[in-house]
Design goal:
Blueprint (H helix, E strand, L loop, with lengths): L2 H13 L1 H19 L7 H17 L5 H23 L4 H20 L4 H4 L5 E2 L3 H5 L8 E4 L2 E4 H25 L2 H11 L1 H6 L4 H26 L2 E2 L6 H14 L6 H23 L11 H22 L8 H7 L1
Antiparallel strand pairs: 1-4, 2-3
Length: 329
């Protein structure tokens, strides 16, 4: 087996567009779960609205991409308020149930033939990202190599924009978490009754966190729609939210860089066994007898075991604070 080529592929995934997308989802979930203690199991629903906001406005209404991004993020903010109004005054599990149901309902509605004129149903939306790539300083069709790690020019441009957005969001989360707003949010997470006794409107702070995290998730959908560059409703499945939670757990909740490190590590750990297993099953005399479908399943089993070991030996994640995890429990 070629270990070097496997590492090169894994390193490309480490910083690639997929890692950026899940980092954005995880940053939003970090505000929800890490700082506010909110169980949002429907983050991918916010990403769906962000992505389709770009696609629908550009293809159906011939509007610029930036306007579609604003529409998608605004739609996510409205969805967060609609979901938060009836649930944030109740127990945390009600929000989890409502968000996972809402994201699945959105996916089914957007893939329905009855909405084909707007959402293009299962055919998806494509052919709208040319203005985005027209701004690229790279040759979009050319392959670039850095220490043997290869990227297409279009992916490089998406990575430059994506990691810039991630850096700005990390700065925003740092400033918010070290502000009075962030300290109140942590107080609400630890003991909502005590925060209320001190005169803080816990419901208002939780609503703000839900809306802000949902908008960041929608921004992830906007980025994914441009980096792909296409949108299909079947991509926005519930599993994507739990992948983002896996990234958050790996990196460490309630930390600034935990979601980013976790997303990068998530894709690195997913790529390494995938490449090695495919090498072992290739050729006339394979080392392991497995089909491509089995390889795809086994890599998730290996990643799941890695996350389980992380939860046993370091439940706070790579960058997390064990004291905060214990308080949150």
């Amino acid at each position: 087996m070629d270990i070097v080529s496997a590492l090169q592929v894994a390193l490309a995934q480490l910083v690639g567009p997929s890692a950026i997308f899940y980092a954005l989802l995880a940053i939003g979930l970090n505000l929800h779960f890490g700082y506010a203690g909110l169980l949002n199991f429907g983050q991918i629903g916010f990403a769906l609205l962000g992505g389709y906001g770009v696609g629908i406005m550009a293809v159906n209404y011939d509007q610029p991409l930036w306007l579609g991004a604003i529409v998608g993020i605004a739609a996510a903010a409205v969805l967060a308020m609609v979901l938060g109004v009836p649930t944030l005054r109740l127990r945390a599990d009600y929000l989890a149930i409502v968000t996972i149901a809402a994201s699945e309902i959105l996916r089914l509605v957007f893939r329905s033939t009855s909405t084909d004129e707007v959402t293009h149903s299962t055919n998806g939306i494509y052919g709208y990202s040319a203005p985005f790539y027209a701004q690229s300083p790279f040759d979009n069709g050319k392959q670039y190599s850095f220490l043997g790690i290869k990227f297409i020019g279009g992916d490089l441009w998406a990575m430059v924009i994506g990691w810039s957005i991630v850096a700005l969001l990390c700065l925003m989360v740092y400033l918010l978490s070290h502000s009075p707003w962030g300290r109140v949010l942590k107080a609400v997470r630890e003991d909502e009754d005590a925060a209320r006794a001190l005169g803080k409107n816990a419901y208002f702070f939780k609503m703000q966190a839900l809306v802000l995290g949902g908008c960041i998730g929608a921004l992830g959908g906007v980025f994914n729609s441009l980096a792909s560059p296409s949108i299909n409703p079947d991509f926005f499945s519930t599993a994507q939210t739990f992948f983002a939670y896996g990234a958050l757990i790996l990196g460490g909740a309630a930390t600034v860089f935990g979601p980013v490190v976790g997303a990068m590590l998530f894709w690195f750990l997913l790529a390494i066994p995938d490449v090695l297993l495919r090498q072992a099953t290739a050729g006339d005399n394979p080392l392991i007898s497995m089909t491509e479908q089995q390889v795809g399943a086994v890599r998730y089993v290996i990643l799941g075991l890695a996350i389980m070991l992380m939860m046993v030996f370091r439940p706070q994640g790579i960058l997390g604070n064990k004291r905060e995890v214990q308080l949150d429990a």
